[in-house]
Structure to design on (90 residues):
């Protein structure tokens, strides 16, 4: 299906995204986050960001071993401006 949210195209899974993925922002509980991390590894994403309260050390280890950067228990909307990093909308 071709669906959108706030005028942005959405995909059923990471493997359906036709572009390279810089960051996968994970809004799932800590246990479920591991499966999303594995998807991110499989598609060659550059990083995974687990939201505030989401911690999965085993998944983080798998991601690090696969060469992904990992952030856990933090919100990119709060951290990216603090770090002075430009996002895609800037």
């Amino acid at each position: 299906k071709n669906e959108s949210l706030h005028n942005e195209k959405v995909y059923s899974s990471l493997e359906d995204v036709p572009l390279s993925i810089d960051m996968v922002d994970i809004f799932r509980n800590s246990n479920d986050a591991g499966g999303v991390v594995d998807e991110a590894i499989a598609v060659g994403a550059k990083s995974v960001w687990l939201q505030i309260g989401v911690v999965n050390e085993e998944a983080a280890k798998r991601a690090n071993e696969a060469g992904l950067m990992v952030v856990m228990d933090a919100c990119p909307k709060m951290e990216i401006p603090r770090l002075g990093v430009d996002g895609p909308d800037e």
